[in-house]
């Protein structure tokens, strides 16, 4: 019985549904399914080297955990960091938890960086992108196993947000913002 329950949970967790990718080249798509839990200004020293906005999406164990590229472009930054496994909804998770950071620059020179952040249950981040790779908006690019978080970094003067705290989003399908 217990093996059956665990098997069903894993099938539910590792599902990878087809998504309808918006055709808008100005759109920034959600890289993951989940709920927007935070939007705040932070200093980002590795890719932007200035103050930026950070939008955080919490993925519960019931969300699809396949991650998708938020924009089309070239990966110009990649960094994997080992770390702790604190609850992903906590503020310190963005700093202390294991994570992969991916910075993409589009044809217009606009930048987006997003981080896949492991949570208290998650013990493995999978990321298929590396520096020099090209990606298209909505492409599958990895996953975070079990409860986790995605942070998206952007310059507020370049992006008009279309979501707010509490909104539910779908990876590769929901538009979180539009380039101005």
List the helices and strands and how they pair.
Blueprint: H1 2-13, E1 27-29, E2 34-44, E3 50-59, E4 66-68, E5 73-81, H2 93-96, E6 99-105, E7 111-118, E8 125-127, E9 134-135, E10 140-144, E11 148-154, E12 159-161, E13 168-169, E14 175-179
Antiparallel strand pairs: 1-14, 2-3, 2-13, 3-11, 4-10, 5-6, 5-9, 6-7, 7-11, 8-10, 12-14
Uncertain stretches:
none
In the sheet with the most strands, the strands line up as 9-5-6-7-11-3-2-13
Largest beta-sheet details: 8 strands, antiparallel
- Termini separation comes to 54 Å
Mean pLDDT: 89
CATH architecture: Distorted Sandwich
**CATH superfamily name?**
Glucose Permease (Domain IIA)
Q: What integer value in Å does the Rg equal?
A: 15 Å
What's the gist of this structure?
By secondary structure, the chain is mainly beta.
Word description of this protein:
The structure is a single chain. The protein has 180 residues and is mainly beta. It has one domain (2-179): Glucose Permease (Domain IIA) (Distorted Sandwich). It is built from two helices and 14 strands; from the N terminus they run H-E-E-E-E-E-H-E-E-E-E-E-E-E-E-E. It has an eight-stranded antiparallel β-sheet, with no helix packed on it. A three-stranded antiparallel β-sheet has the order 1-14-12, with no helix packed on it. The longest helix has 12 residues, at 2-13. The mean pLDDT is 89.
């Amino acid at each position: 019985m217990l093996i059956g329950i665990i098997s069903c949970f894993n099938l539910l967790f590792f599902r990878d549904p087809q998504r309808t990718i918006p055709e808008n080249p100005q759109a920034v798509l959600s890289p993951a399914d989940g709920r927007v839990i935070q939007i705040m200004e932070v200093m980002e020293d590795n890719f932007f080297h200035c103050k930026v906005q950070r939008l955080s999406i919490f993925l519960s164990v019931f969300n699809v955990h396949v991650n998708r590229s938020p924009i089309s472009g070239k990966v110009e930054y990649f960094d994997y960091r080992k770390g702790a496994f604190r609850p992903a909804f906590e503020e310190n998770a963005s700093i202390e938890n294991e994570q992969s950071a991916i910075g993409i620059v589009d044809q217009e020179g606009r930048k987006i960086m997003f981080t896949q952040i492991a949570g208290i249950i998650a013990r493995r981040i999978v990321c298929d992108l590396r520096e020099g790779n090209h990606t298209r908006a909505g492409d599958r690019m990895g996953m975070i196993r079990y409860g986790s978080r995605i942070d998206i970094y952007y310059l507020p003067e370049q992006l008009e947000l279309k979501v707010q705290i509490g909104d539910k989003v779908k990876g590769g399908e929901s538009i979180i913002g539009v380039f101005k």
